[in-house]
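#onboarding

Welcome to the new folks! Below is a worked example of what a typical request in this channel looks like: someone posts a single protein sequence, and someone else replies with the predicted structure as tokens. Don't worry about understanding the tokens yet, we'll cover that in week two.

Example request:
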Amino acid sequence: MSPGPARGRTPGQEGGGGRRNPVRQWQLVRAGADAVPPSTRRFMARARRRRMRAALPWAVAAGVLALAGLVAWTVLGTGLFGVREVRVVGAHLVTPVEVRDAAAVPDGAPLARVDLSATARRVRALAPVERVTVERDWPGTLVVRVVERTPVAVVPQGERFVVLDRAGVVFQDLPQAPAGLPVIRVGAPAPDDPGTRAGLAVLAALSPRLRAELVSVDVAGLARITLRLRGDRTVFWGDATRGADKSTVATALLGRKADTIDVSAPDVVTYR
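Example response:
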């Protein structure tokens, strides 16, 4: 009988002194730079540069948007650039406190969000204010520039006196008549009152000499306007038309010894 295989042998072994079959083991090794051909390295470098150039505009745009958002949030949404001061310029008939109260801008409100037009409208509601501009002065000041009304006449009202500007707006109420202002006597002074407008038109037409002699312009009616002059002299003016002609004639007659001068029809003048 042929002898059988020896017990305890494993495949790959022959007899008692057989050798093991060699087992291959693989290992990854990073190739050195010198192992990559120069043409391949140039190609890869160009590809990287192209990718960077393509991505750069997007990166810049994203950075700009992020910066703009941060700035907008800082300016509009925080108190970092809030209102710290309301500076009032040009106020004399009204006090800076009255202007600030009328402006009604809260302390710390974002300066960029202040409605300049609305603020100006609120300040312009003050009677002595004719015009107003509101500006931002960064980082935290609101500048309110006020142009006040110019007084041109005073109107007695009972025991008090109201002051008018050239448009007939009443903007002051005083216990005494201010010095240097001519007096207009009219029932209900107002910009839309015909008597007020007629009295102001007559006043504007007077020559400097008539103004110097003037005590008051009395408006009893639209066609019954009278000038009261010093020395108890009277000029009957009539209506407010042809003011320049009437002023010239009345001024020329001031040298005459006459208590009453009628220039209501300046082409036919009477005096006595």
